[in-house]
Amino acid sequence: MKAVGYREPGAIDREDALQDIELPRPVPGPHDLLVEVAAVSVNPLDTKVRRRAGADGDGWKVLGWDAVGRVVETGEAVTAFKSGDEVWYAGSIARQGSNAELHLVDERIVGRKPSSLSAAEAAALPLTAITAWEMLFDRLDVRRPVPGAANAILIIGGAGGVGSIAIQLLRALTDVTIIATASRPETQDWVRQLGAHHVIDHAQPIGQQVEALGIGAPSWVFSITQSGAHAAEAAKAIAPQGRYGLIDDPLGFDILLFKPKAVSVHWESMFTRAVFQTPDMAAQGRLLTEVAELVDAGRLRTTVTDVMRPINAANLKAAHARIESGTTRGKIVLEGF
C-alpha cells in the first residue's frame, strides 16, 4: 500500500523529511478496524513528532492522526462497525499514523462520519474536536459555575484548529461568553464568524484587555498556544478559584502564578484514553458520534480552510511547513491517494 513516512527526525526542509513509500497491508487485531483512508488533516502535533521522534529500528514512521475513510475489514471482537461503514477518528499516537492508504484503528475511539460533510470537510475535525471537548467538558467542566466569576471563558489562540471548534462547541452546547484572542485582522474575522462574543489581541497585554470588556473576570481560561509566554497575563485575567487548561508544551511554565487565586491547572492530552486503554476509552467514540450529529444538525461547521490533493510526501511537506510558520487558521486537509 502507498504511505508517507520517514526514518530520522528533523527539519521539514530536508529531502528525506517525508517520503513516498510502500508498506505491507496491515492485519487487524481483535478490536481493530482496517480503514481505507479517503482524507487526512495535518495538525501541529504532526510537526512536533516529526522533529523529535524517528522510526524504530530500520522501519518507517508514519504520521497522521486525523482520518476519514471506509471500513474494509474488522477484527474478531469488533461489534460496532462493519465493512462499508464510513468513519472518522483521530487514532492513537502509540500506533502508526493515518498517512497511508490503509490504516488500523481501535473501534472504541471511532465515530460515524457526518453524512452532511465530504471526506475532506470531515477530516478537519476529529482530533481538534476531541481535544476541545475533553478540555471544555471533562477538564475545565464549563457547565459547573465558578462562584462569583463571570460565566465567560478566555481562549488564547482562538483561530487555529482547536480554537475554531472550541468556539463552536461552546456556542452550540452552553451559554458561556467567549473571549477569543487573535492577532491579525483575518484571524480576528475568522473567530468572530465562528461565534466569539469578544475578540482581543494576544500580542498586547491580555489581562488589561479582558478587564476593559467590563464583563468581569472569566471563570475559565483555555490556553492553546504559547502558554508559557501568556501565563502571567492569564493569571491576571482569570477569576479567583477559576480553572485554567493548556494543551501545548511550553518549555517554561510558572504554575505558581496561579496559586494566589487558588486556580486549578488542567492538562489535556487527547491520546491519553487510547494510549493507556482507560476504562472509559469508548467515550471518544461516543463523543465523535455526538459531534457528527451536531454537524448534521447544522450546529457545527467544518474548520477546513485548505484542501490539497493528493496525499503524498510533497503535499505533506508543504502542509508541515505552513503549520510551522505559525500563520495558519483553521485546518489543512489532504485528500486521496
TrEMBL record:
It comes from Haematobacter massiliensis. Belongs to the zinc-containing alcohol dehydrogenase family. Quinone oxidoreductase subfamily. This is Zinc-type alcohol dehydrogenase-like protein. It comes from the Bacteria. GO terms for molecular function: oxidoreductase activity; zinc ion binding. Pfam families: ADH_N, ADH_zinc_N_2. CDD domains: AL_MDR. Keywords: Metal-binding, Oxidoreductase, Zinc. NCBIfam families: adh_fam_1. Gene3D superfamilies: Medium-chain alcohol dehydrogenases, catalytic domain (3.90.180.10), NAD(P)-binding Rossmann-like Domain (3.40.50.720). The lineage of its organism: Bacteria, Pseudomonadati, Pseudomonadota, Alphaproteobacteria, Rhodobacterales. InterPro entries: ADH-like_N, ADH_Zn_typ-1, ER, GroES-like_sf, Lipid_raft_assoc_Zn_ADH, NAD(P)-bd_dom_sf.
